[in-house]
Amino acid sequence: MSTDKEEFLFRDETYNLIGAAFEVYNELGFSFLEPVYQEAYEHELSLKNILFVSQPCLRINYKGKLLEKEYFADLIAYEKILIELKAIEKLTPREEAQILNYLRAANIKVGLLINFGAHPKLEYKRIVL
């Protein structure tokens, strides 16, 4: 039998990251482009003393060969949660596929897909591999 904590991997960290997103959304609303939200979210994480890496480079390993193509996730926080930010009308399976690929490439189990462009409220999804 598993405990509640095991079922919700990185519960406290996820809660803090989503809380920071709500703070940004409450301050800026839904009408800006993604780079504005990226900068504001990074500032909010800094204010909350949450360690993160911005725009980490992700490389794909294919059958033992590291491919030349590089991808850049928006953030990795706490060294274990990948965050992909969007500013679009609605999240779709395309964005979910993107974060799943990034999670695999980064060898990270938990991701947050956060959409600041949704209205009337912030949209987010927690993705676990």
Structural class: alpha+beta
Number of helices: 4
Query: What value does the Rg take, in angstroms?
Result: 15 Å
The CATH architecture would be Alpha-Beta Complex
Biggest sheet layout:
5 strands, mixed
Largest beta sheet: strand ordering: 1-4-5-6-7
Helix and strand arrangement:
Blueprint: H1 4-7, H2 11-28, H3 34-47, E1 52-54, E2 57-62, E3 65-72, E4 75-77, E5 81-86, H4 93-106, E6 110-115, E7 123-128
Parallel strand pairs: 5-6
Antiparallel strand pairs: 1-4, 2-3, 4-5, 6-7
Please explain how this structure is put together.
β5 (81-86), α4 and β6 (110-115) form a beta-alpha-beta unit. This protein is α+β, with helices and mostly antiparallel strands. The model is unreliable at 1-6 (pLDDT under 50). The chain has one domain (32-128): Lambda Exonuclease, Chain A (Alpha-Beta Complex). It has helices at 4-7, 11-28, 34-47, 93-106, and strands at 52-54, 57-62, 65-72, 75-77, 81-86, 110-115, 123-128.
Which keywords apply here?
about 130 residues; alpha+beta; Lambda Exonuclease, Chain A; two-stranded antiparallel sheet; 4 helices; 7 strands; disordered N terminus
In short:
With about 130 residues, the protein is α+β, with helices and mostly antiparallel strands. The protein has one domain (about 30-129): Lambda Exonuclease, Chain A (Alpha-Beta Complex).
